[in-house]
Amino acid sequence: MHWVIQGNLVSQEDSDRLIQALDARGVEHTLVKLIPVVRELEFTPVIDGPVFVYGTTFIHRHAYNPLWWPGYIGGTANFQEISEGYGNEMLNAKVKYMPLSEVTVGEGEDVFVRPDDDGKLFTGKVVNAQELQELKDVVVGQFGSNALSETMVVAPPQNILAEYRCLVVDGQVVTASYYRKKGRVFQSNEVDESVLEYAQKQADKYQPEIGFALDIAETENGFKIIEVNSLSSCGFYACDLDKFVVAMETLGNKMRPQGKIRSKLSF
To answer: Which of 26, 99, 224, 244 is the most exposed place for a label (fewest CB within 10 A)?
Structure first.
């Protein structure tokens, strides 16, 4: 499988680590960059056979080639659909949906807010009244006032002991990482087997995509699912990227389309 990687990612560390893992396995890849403002690629690669895309959501929206397979993985299921798939295993099983413009926070209170879809106007977070207004200002500044009509998921904050990111490929949890512990950033791939077993049980229950990032919360009442993120845009934290590359290559070989497919980006 050929990998197309966006070089000017928000996290340069993630793209660098991924390229190192690909080089170690001798996997072909092409580094591309999006031109700021116009959000188009600097060049348009022509590739035969399966292609996996790793980049920001703008790769999906502005440069994704529908002939590439599996191409960009993610963004087809929103939070409501994922909640229906996992049911009461969701950390925020009872939420409200409303436009960003209608989200409010009382003085002295906090609220969890995130976009319903995977378009990533912003990453889900807990905010107070001032932080919410600052968030709205940033969204309008980056995406325009129409973004205020985007549907949000709103829920009360939860007490989380630890948070984990699990990468799921073709129904299997292939690697995982701590990314937060007791509210603080903490990255480690030394994840307890109980986390992996829980994540696998949920992946056996429901898979929104052929691959996805499953975020797990450890709470006082056991494990719960925080959310699902796009495999093509997620951060890797301390995940074992060699295991991820091997799993994706296996997927590409397993489901390789018959014959050659020449894929070219066009605008």
So the answer is: 26
Residues 86, 64 contacting (CB under 8 angstroms): no
**What does the pLDDT look like over 43-69, one tens digit per residue?**
778 888 899 999 887 555 556 677 888
- pLDDT tens digit string along 108-124? 999 999 999 876 688 88
**What span, in angstroms and rounded, lies between the C-alpha atoms of 156 and 240?**
33
CB 88 within 8 A of CB 246: no
DSSP-derived pairing of the beta strands 262-264 and 46-48 = antiparallel
Give how far the C-alpha of residue 14 lies from the chain's centroid of Cα atoms, to the nearest Å: 13
DSSP-based three-state secondary structure for 181:
strand
Determine the Cα–Cα distance for residues 65 and 44; give it in Å rounded to an integer. 10
**Which tokens belong to 208?**
């929104």
Among residues 186, 174, 166, 171, the alpha carbon closest in space to that of 21 is found at 174
3-state secondary structure of 151: strand
> 3-state DSSP call for residue 160?
coil
DSSP 8-state symbol, 256: P
Beta carbons within 10 angstroms of residue 164's beta carbon: 26
How many other CB atoms are there within 10 angstroms of residue 38's CB atom? Answer: 9
Record the pTM. Answer: 0.86
